[in-house]
Amino acid sequence: MVYNPLGALNAMFGWHQHPRNGKVARLPGPMRELINLWLQDGLTYRQILQKLTSTVALPYPLSEMNLSNWFHGGYQDWRKTRRLSCLDFEI
Question: Is the pLDDT assigned to residue 91 strictly greater than 70?
């Protein structure tokens, strides 16, 4: 069985995590990872959209609002997961 630190934290505090279902959440994993890294690097939503449209074929149009929603939800989850995995790695 694989240890899921985020799941353990949610269970400890009684939080129920629902899967994300927005436009960015429905993108393929590698594309979401790229968006997360660009957000982490401080790129603006407009810059991210320009990079995405010039380098990959998006399955549907994305807006700055879609990226903003992702920043406040899925990206924060991604950051927490990375922090927890770093803590696990150090132990």
Answer: no
